[in-house]
Structure formats: C-alpha cells, structure tokens
Amino acid sequence: MELRHLRYFIAVAEELHFSRAAERLHIAQPPLSQQIQQLEAQLGVELFQRKTKRHVQLTEAGQVFLQEAYQLLAQLEKAIELTQQTGRGEKGKLRIGFTSLVTYNLLPVILRRFRERFPEVELILQELTTTQQEQALQERRIHVGFAHPLLEDNTLNQECIQREALIVAMLETHPLAEQEKISVRSLINENFIMFPRHLGPGLYDQIISLCQQGNFSPKVTQEAIQMQTIIALVSAGIGIAIAPSSLQNLQRSGVVYRAIEENTPLVETAVVWQQEDMTPVLREFLQIVRNIC
C-alpha cells in the first residue's frame, strides 16, 4: 500500500463519484478505478458499493477505513511539519552552560530574544564554571556555553561577545568608597575575596596581574565559587573584591562599586561550542547571539 492509495481512496469517499474524484485528483478516471481496486485487493475487503459505474457508496468497512485514513494523513502531515520545523531550528532542545557573570547583562537579553523567535525550542540551562563547561562540551552534556577564556581545549569553537574592565566592590562605609576611582596600589593592605583559580583561571590570573601592576600580591582571605556569594561576603565585611564591571548590576545592601584608576585587563566572555555537534537549533541560537553582541 502506498500513500497515493490513501489519497485516492479519500477523494472517492468524499465525492462518492469516480469522475468527480478523478477531476479533483487531476488524473483520468480509469487509472483511479484501478488504484481503488488494487487497494481493496490488498485489504481483502470491499470499500465501496458500486451503485453505477461511476457513482459509489461506502461500505461499513470503507467507513472505518476512511476515519483511519484521515488519522494516518493527519499524523503524516504532523510528522512532516515537525521534521521541517526541526530542520529550520524551530523545534528541539538546546542545553546551555553559563557562568554566573553573564546572568547580570548578556544572558537574559539573549534568552529573551531567542524565546521570542523560537518559542517551541526547549532550553535547558546549567550554571557551570568555564572549566566545567569545557568538560560538558567534550562529553556532549551541553550544546553551547558562555565562558571566559583562556580555554584549555583549543579544539572548541569560540567567539568573543564581550570585553569588560575590572572594578572594585567594597562596603559603602569603607574609607576608599569616598573616591570615584581607586588606585590599585591603595588596595595593598586589603583582604581579598576571590574566585578559586582551578575553577576560573582566566579571571583569577587577570586580578593577580592587576595587583602586580601595583607591586603587591593580594592577600586572599576567602574564596567563593559564585559571584553573588562574593558580593554577599563583601556586604558582610569580610573583605573587598575585584570583579568584572557587569557585576554592578548586582545590587547588594551596603555594597558599592568603584572604577579602578589604572587600565585594567579586560575580562572576555565568549560563546563556545563544538562545531561537529552543530544542529539547526544551535545554528539559530548562535545567530541570535551575534545579532545582539
């Protein structure tokens, strides 16, 4: 049985007339009659009662088969539509890794735009450090990540989407908070709250490099994995923190942010993926990212 048999049968069943069904299908009437006879032979039942050579009526079996044929064609049309949508990147899943830093400016805008354009794509978000994202991409647990170079895996595709300077987060009651800009050298005696190097070597090394410009090594008294935790510890008076400028969007009671007087290293944010794992959904997502950034 072929798909055309179903279409021919439905046309005859709806018209109950071979000539009208043939006109509707843009074929001659004799081949149509032959196709219906072949279908009946395959099924082993009569689908139509022939009142005249051209005018017919559905048998009870024909009525049942008509309903099933409608369902089969509807399912086929649904399968075709779903396949086409998936091929266009309009359907599917996308697993996204991200660091906490990108949640303060870039990521919400990107996700909102993508949702507006592709509402039927399921987004699965995982907060991961840069190192964890590299591993997740290698193990195919995520499709794309937002991380901070330098990356250890040079086989990954990456595009820089943002560069930002470093700033200082401190208590609003700190004596240095009265200044609009703070010299790195003035932080020599401060207690630093920092991100562990093994989880984010790029940012860690940039902060160390900045302090070395002031001829000192920072006194790290506390480490924290999440940026919001670092700022919470600043709010608790544990110490000061040097962080990317986008962190200013994280408002915390008692904490102020100040620019650094000297030129600071620029913290890069990159979108990262495996080219060999490119899918239509990922392709469309990357295009949204490029349009925004």
Short description:
By secondary structure, the chain is α/β, with parallel strands linked by helices. It is built from nine helices and 13 strands.
Notes on the structure:
- The protein is rod-shaped and about 105 Å long.
- The strands form 4 sheets. The chain has a 5-stranded mixed β-sheet with strand order 4-3-5-13-6, with helices on both faces.
- The mean pLDDT is 92.
- Helices cover 41% and strands 23% of the residues.
- The chain contains 9 helices and 13 strands.
- Helix 1 packs across helix 4 (60-87).
- It has helices spanning 3-15, 18-25, 29-43, 60-87, 106-117, 130-138, 201-213, 227-235, 280-292, and strands at 48-50, 56-58, 92-98, 121-127, 144-147, 157-164, 166-171, 181-182, 191-194, 219-223, 241-244, 255-260, 267-273.
- The longest helix is centred in the N-terminal third of the chain and has 28 residues, at 60-87.
